[in-house]
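Example record

Each entry pairs one chain with its bound ligand, magnesium ion.
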Amino acid sequence: MRVLSCIVTEHNLWLVLLAAFVCISGGWITLGLLQRAEKTQGLQRGGWIFLTAVAAGSSVWCTHFIAMLAYEVGAPVTFDPILTMASFLLAVAGSSVGFAVMLSRTPRLAPELGGAGVGLAIATMHYTGMMAYHVDGIVEWNQSYVISSVVLSVTLAAFAFNQAIRRPWRLAPQAALVLFVLAVVALHFTAMTAVSVTPLATDAGLADSYALRAMAVAVAGGGLLIIGTGVASYMIDERASRESIEKLQHMALNDLLTGLPNRCSFSDYLRGEMERAKEDGAKLAVIGIDLDRFKEINDLRGHKAGDQALKAIGRRLARLVKDGEFVARVGGDEFAAAKRFLNQSELLDFVARLEKTMFEPIRIDDFETVTGASIGVAVYPDDGIDQERLVSNADLAMYRAKADIGRAVCFYESRMDEAARARHTLAQDLRRAVELDQLELHYQVQTSVSTGEICGYEALARWNHPEHGQVPPSEFIPIAEESGTILMIGEWVLRTACRQAASWDRPYKIAVNLSPVQFAHADLAKLIHSILLETGLSPARLELEITESTIIADKSRTLHVLRQIRTLGVTIAIDDFGTGYSSLDTLRSFPFDKIKLDRSFMSEVERSIQAKAIVRAVLALGKSLEIPVLAEGVETNHQLEILRTEGCDEAQGFFLGRPKPVGQIFQPDHAADDGLGSSFSGRIPPVRMRRR
Ligand code: C2E
Ligand code: MG
Ligand code: MG
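Structure tokens for the complex follow.
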């Protein structure tokens, strides 16, 4: 009698090694594929579970088969093909169920139960394989070994997949592999100890033994091919998912339009660079960049042109950066840059390159434009040692550059902080100004140029600040617009002007200025209607002044509101015409009742031929469109004479009357002085220029 497990010969040792190799590599890829399956859901998971089961089944089956062929029983051996195939299929099917159970995670012990299932599948495969193994001899089984082999396989596999799925410690993946291989090996050797054969015919014959070895190699090759397929699909999928992860990462860290890093990457970059600068004593410049005329491109040429401009700027900025420099797009028309440096000259060079780039013309379709930009610089550690402070100081400097028409670049200075603080306090004061009755309206007369008759009055807001004295509207209106207080102030101005005008003996027209913010937020037509009803002012006496920027801000909405207002019987004037956009399209888009020619032309009209030509052109335009023109800023009789000669309809200006408090408007001019300009000079910090 021969116990099979004892008769591995030296010649067949390499077959045992081959079996071990197949088992270990198969186990390794099985666990890899299982991890892949774990990360997927639904049908995809089903596919991965199947692949895992094929890898597990074929590696276990090949291991078993090669190991079986390694035994020399000393009697002729044959294999039942159907049972051999069945053993393979059972291994695959059984482990499929096991993997599905362990990944379902529904019972708490799913990983262990599924693992036990895989162990059971290995055992079933082994014993079915043994049934396929026909040896010419008397085969006897030792039951306790059989039971032990199944228990060992089930238990070790349960532990293996406990480690693989739960990963309770760092080396869990390796432990899982060792336990899985042990499950296969322990089952095999214990099961083989259980069987003993007493050969009936001695000597299997050498030819047979060669044939069996060849078969072992073929099986191993086939098995490795199947495992290889698993490895290949794993790698392809790994690569595909790595690529999509990389793509997602790229999307998360970069701006889609320009391809430049986004705010998030900029912030990460700053964090890292500040750490480095801290260590090696270098400096780090944080630079805020805001385009000056981007909105104009967007509004006048459309969003597609705007996008093209941003892309062009993005490309140029990307090309401009050198080692140790970084640029990002951090908002709609906002960019940011950073640079580590030791000498100030390096920073100046970088800033100069940025400025040059931002002022280079951009060609979009058939037009060329220059967006220009305001650039603010703050330096670590001088202007702040934390990221938030540095970025906000760079922004402060950038706003300063924006307010300063002659300067595109501004370096942060600590006084800017004070300025920003002062503006903040002023915004808070302004919120209470209406309640505390600090606002007042002054009225400036509007006169017919040909007859000298009074046509109406423009209401101009004044703020009597308890500490700063009289703050001019050019200072507080932008602050009110920024903080939203303009809605409350605008309503107060409208109500007060209508009420006061309604009380006058003569039915002069009253002109009230409107801010774009009022159009964007309030139900303006309704408000005007209710104020007219409340104050009893005839709608025909109210004229509203808007600037072109109001229309440009949101053309369709503004025009809609303007039409509503017009149906009330209120007239609309376009203010400050000739500056800014002055597009004929604006005049065409709405039937304005008056064009107010900006006062800058009056100051020039006596000296400059160009200014005079523009005045003439606007007057001609008004005539052909049948819109009366009012010239603002008339300060001398000579200017008024020119207007008369050119055929201007109305005029307004210090020469005709300064803005005066309501109680003084019907008194001769010398009795009043609007007091502006002289009493207030530069106490309020500069503001980011915004046109009404
Ligand atoms: P605006 O609507 O163009 O008002 C005319 C401005 O020109 C007034 O300045 C007026 O005092 C000034 N002005 C009038 N005649 C002359 C002149 O002969 N020479 C010179 N150099 N200036 C003259 P003010 O009152 O400082 O108002 C400035 C701007 O503030 C206004 O320009 C208007 O845009 C805005 N504003 C004033 N009140 C309000 C208001 O209640 N609401 C809104 N949204 N804006 C207002
Ligand atoms: Mg006005
Ligand atoms: Mg004006």
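Confidence is low (pLDDT under 50) at residues 1-6, 671-692.
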